[in-house]
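Please check our next protein.
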Amino acid sequence: MVKRIFDLILALILMVLLSIPMLVIAVWIKLMSKGPAVFWTDRVGVNNGIFKMAKFRTMKLDTPQVATHLMEDPERYLIPGGEFLRKYSLDELPQLFNVLKGDMSFVGPRPALFNQDDLITLRTNKNIHKLVPGVTGWAQVNGRDDLEIPVKVSFDEYYFNHRSFAFDLYIILLTVIKVVKREGVRH
């Protein structure tokens, strides 16, 4: 319950503080490319239920719906400014709506794409699917895009077995540091 209250308060504060930058990003995306500024993608949530996760659209409309690391040349799909938004995780800001709604928490395993069967299966086998997915997580601050799926799941499992409010605050602090340093971002 403490985690949910924390999520709600922090999400509301951040939405107020970041409303102008979010508006600027949305306008930029609309000016630079056709289509909506916010992209809604099917993701796997708690108990493997599917929910719609919001992100600022950094890629063209014809981009295949697969994990970016599986694309042959992901850079060719980026819209102007998309690389910047991704490097600084600004594309993730609309997930504040998902946190408010309760589909996501600030900290938890990153939600898998609906078609990442290998990741979903490994997480289910380790009961990680019982957690609400997060905007950031222990795997995110320990390698993010650089982690192979079994390694990512081992970090998720560690979080599952050691989760606490203090650990969540530590992960949030590490996330801010990693984002500023742009560590672990490949695409």
